[in-house]
Amino acid sequence: MALTQESVEVLRDRIVKLEADIDRLSKHDALTGLLNRVSFYSVIEEQRVAAFNAHLFDGALVEVMVHGMPKISGTLGRHAGDYVLSALAARLNQSAVPGCVSARMDQSQFAVFFPHVSTHDHAMQLADDVLRELSQPVEWLDRPLSIELAAGVSLLSESGRATVNLIQNAELALESAMLRGSMGRVMFNPEIARSFKRRNEVLYALQGCLEKNELSLRYQPVYDANSGALAGFEALMRMNCRDLGMVSPAEFIPVAESAGMISIFGAWALQEACSAAAHWPPHLTLAVNISPDQFHTGTLVADVKKALVKSGMAPNRLELEITESTLLVNSDNVLEQLKAIYDLGCSIVLDDFGTGYSSLSYLWKFPFSKLKLDKAFIAAMDLTASAKGVAQSIVGLANSLRLKITAEGIESETQAKSLRDLGVHYLQGFYFSPPVTEQDLAPLVLREFSKLYPSQRPSPLQAIA
Ligand code: C2E
Ligand code: MG
Ligand code: MG
Q1: How far is ligand 3, taken at its centre, from the CA of residue 352, in Å?
Q2: Count of alpha carbons within 13 Å of 104, Cβ hemisphere only?
Q3: Is 426 exposed, middle or buried (0-12, 13-18, 19+ CB in 10 A)?
Q4: Dihedral (C-alpha) 339, 342, 347, 352: value to the nearest 10 degrees?
Q5: pLDDT reading at 8 higher than 80
Q6: Please, which residues have CB less than 5 A from ligand 2, an ion?
Q7: The whole model's pTM is what?
């Protein structure tokens, strides 16, 4: 049956409408109605190209991440999460200034492009406006949900006037802001790009480094402050990879942590160190550092057990060093695991005391066997009398709690002497020895025996006695 002119018109209208719908859907985010990432890019790029010849096209990009969306959706349901995101998108629309372009870039990530902005101050002020607007609580079923945000800001003039760089730079600045905590906003600068590039190189190097034998352990000796006898060693991880050479653990451990890889490396370190220590004289202790993240994967207790069983090392020789930050998050769960490790016969040591939070309240929460005074604290004792006074109080407190104290990072005879006079029980630092390889550890252990024979060379501790 032939179509009438009228039905052809109707069909044509429907097709046109359908095409418009498809076009709208492909360019906009279905939930919020904002532009999606691809079309946001196209819109800015079109405007940039149109203005290119006139050299008029300046602008700033503010990218915002809404923290805690998975938590909202997880605890209150997906509808609540969708509602919050829609409410934030509506606020972006309402507060839009003429010419600005908004988008939903990702699950919990929004972006606003502001044309005609060329200075940091102006861009940061706009970012503050966006954060202020979006951070108001969202009402969900008569309950105010608090909104935590981070923002990254970039300028077109500092992005080689390329849209792709503008977006990339704002996203790097946003990552940097997120690392600093909520409600922060960070302006892109080339140092951010350099540090992310380096971070990615380290991350790349970490992948497969165990298989390539690029990870190893060094052992730094710890001495009894009173007798001068060697008391044990602390295992310290090293990465030496083909492309980057030696990378410090202070650099690669945080990268491994943020990439969720630290548990594998931590389990490896436990196994490797226990296997080495099993061959040492049995009175020597072994300390292994444990990252907070190793408590979150839930495999730590099993990893410790496995390392002890496989190596045959006595559990009472193993000390696990944790930092106070470990106890900040989900502390009941952490304390449970610490208790299980303690029940195996191992000791738990509080590392890096005197930096960061240094809350004495943690000392009551768990029967730590030792507390390690951080090297920054030891260095401060050289400079201020008050640091010495605080060290004295810490030693007094530790004694009344029957806690031993190790001073780490000792670099001079004066430091060693004054810490021993203060009553610190163990000493560790470059003044005595740097961390050494497993092969170089043997002479150190032999020197211990030499103390039994006075004709042998004295240890550095005997020198300060
Ligand atoms: P940490 O556990 O507090 O280890 C002490 C750090 O101080 C080590 O740095 C050591 O080489 C350094 N040190 C020792 N004596 C001196 C001294 O006299 N002066 C100075 N300036 N430094 C001294 P390293 O080996 O670079 O390790 C840095 C941090 O990386 C460690 O601090 C620890 O937090 C972490 N780390 C190292 N190995 C591991 C590991 O196997 N697992 C985990 N999770 N973290 C590790
Ligand atoms: Mg340590
Ligand atoms: Mg330390």
Answers
A1: 4
A2: 21
A3: buried
A4: -10
A5: no
A6: 289, 321, 351
A7: 0.81
Q: What was the pLDDT predicted at 464?
A: 54
Within its chain, how far is the Cα of 463 from the centroid? 41
State the closest ligand 1 atom to the C-alpha of 248, by its place in the atom list counted from 1: 26
Instruction: Give ion ligand 3 contacts, CB < 5 A.
Output: 351-352
Cβ(372)–Cβ(408) below 8 Å: yes
**Nearest residue CA, atom 42 of ligand 1?**
289
pLDDT, tens only, 129-178: 999 999 999 999 988 999 999 999 999 989 888 899 999 999 999 999 98
CA 306 – ligand 2 centroid, Å: 21
Nearest alpha carbon, ligand 1 atom 43: 289
Closest CA to 149 of 110, 189, 113: 110
Give strand pairing partners of 418: none
pLDDT at 458 over 60: no
Ligand 1, pocket-test mutation among 210, 234, 236, most atoms within 8 A of CB: 236
The residue among 50 and 411 whose pLDDT is bigger is 411
- What secondary structure, in 3-state letters, does the chain show? CCCCHHHHHHHHHHHHHHHHHHHHHHHECCCCCCEEHHHHHHHHHHHHHHHHCCCCCCEEEEEEEEECHHHHHHHHCHHHHHHHHHHHHHHHHHCCCCCCEEEEEECCEEEEEEECCCCHHHHHHHHHHHHHHHCCCEEECCEEECCEEEEEEEEHHHCCCCHHHHHHHHHHHHHHHHHHCCCCEEECCHHHHHHHHHHHHHHHHHCCCCCCCCEEEEEEEEEECCCCCEEEEEEEEEEEECCCEEECHHHHHHHHHHCCCHHHHHHHHHHHHHHHHCCCCCCCEEEEECCCHHHHCCCHHHHHHHHHHHHCCCHHHEEEEECHHHHCCCHHHHHHHHHHHHHCCCEEEEEEECECCCCCCHHHHCCCCEEEECHHHHHHHHHCHHHHHHHHHHHHHHHHCCCEEEECCCCCHHHHHHHHHHCCCEECCCCCCCCECHHHHHHHHHHHHHCCCCCCCCCHHHHHC
